[in-house]
Specification:
Helix 3 (about 75-85) packs parallel to helix 4. The chain has a five-stranded mixed sheet with strand order 1-2-3-4-5, with helices on both faces. It has a single domain, classed as Trna Endonuclease, Chain: A, domain 1. It has helices at about 1-5, 10-25, 75-85, 100-110, 120-130; strands spanning about 35-40, 50, 60-65, 90-95, 115-120. The protein has five helices and five strands, in the order ααβββαβαβα. The termini are far apart. It is of the alpha/beta class and about 150 residues long.
């Protein structure tokens, strides 16, 4: 899953990220299909996707997605924090196919805006857990003996 994510474009990665968050990984947007929206393109101001937590869009989470092999550093997180301020947002999710530097993690722990960092391994785990972009090949049922069945009445 993680290797495949390195091959997809950022718009698809953003769409995938919004879908994972909407479907239940984080429960954002409920069951509405229109809760997640991809907006990222050249000149997007640092925002790749939006998730509306309610129908009116009063509470919005902004997404930044990076398809990188190297860890994302503090400067990229600072740019995203600035983009959030530019739209008066206080919540964002920064998703990457790689990881984050310790400086990036430290930075998000000290700012007022709530930015959640999701690395490639976490995203892949969420995809598998919620069947987004994956399909089951086989499943197994493990059974145990039901001792109540053998108890005399």
């Amino acid at each position: 899953t993680l290797f495949w994510m390195l091959e997809v474009g950022v718009p698809k990665l953003t769409s995938l990220s919004a879908e994972v968050m909407r479907i239940g990984t984080m429960g954002y947007g409920g069951t509405r299909k229109d809760a997640g929206q991809t907006v990222g393109k050249s000149g997007d101001g640092g925002i790749d996707g939006i998730i509306k937590e309610d129908r009116l869009g009063l509470d919005v989470i902004y997404i930044q997605a990076k398809r990188w092999e190297n860890p994302v550093g503090r400067p990229e997180i600072q740019k995203f924090a600035g983009a959030l301020q530019g739209v008066r947002a206080r919540k964002g999710v920064f998703i990457t196919t790689s990881g984050f530097t310790s400086e990036a993690k430290d930075y998000v722990s000290r700012i007022d805006s709530k930015i959640i960092l999701i690395d490639g391994r976490q995203l892949a785990a969420f995809m598998i857990e919620h069947n987004v972009g994956v399909s089951p090949v086989e499943s197994y049922v493990v059974k145990r003996i039901d001792m109540d069945y053998f108890v005399d009445d």
